[in-house]
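>> received
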Amino acid sequence: MNRLCVFTRIIRCGLWIVLPLLFTSYISPKTVWAAADPEAGNYILQVTGSSNLELNGNILYSTAIETTASGRKYTLMELRLDNRQLSEAHSLGFLISRPGSSVELSTGTYKISMNGTGGYFPNFDGAFGFANIDSAGELPFFAMEGTIKISRRDLNNMEGSLEMTFRNENSENLKIKGKFKAINRLVQ
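>> returned
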């Protein structure tokens, strides 16, 4: 009986040591990545898939009215992302397009649209994106699904986030998500 009491005490003490350690050191397999809030004119993006890395750099935007060969007008917004020298070498670009010349591209959620984009041509309704990331290979990636959300916009600044899936010619996928605070190119 004496041995049983000693064994029970050892087990109880061991559990008091091991269980708190297990509870405090557990990390969920789907750890949520919370993007830091970028400074004005910058972006912070997380890339997962064939490459796992964080991208950051400068972001500018511009707006224009484009006319197709048939005379139809579209309002176009371009986001141009350029990396810093200390970051992974990359370039990204996004186009948001809406039919009409009086359409204001302001706050809202814009879905990626692969229908009728015809490459980089702005005569479509939706958003289009591309990514060239050196560590992901030589082939460019094109946005297949996802959204660009503009949460705040004034004459010279725009804030938002994006979350989308990109694919290259070899069917390799990248998921890119993060936040941005763009500056109007005309102000910069």
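>> Confidence is low (pLDDT under 50) at residues 26-33, 116-120.
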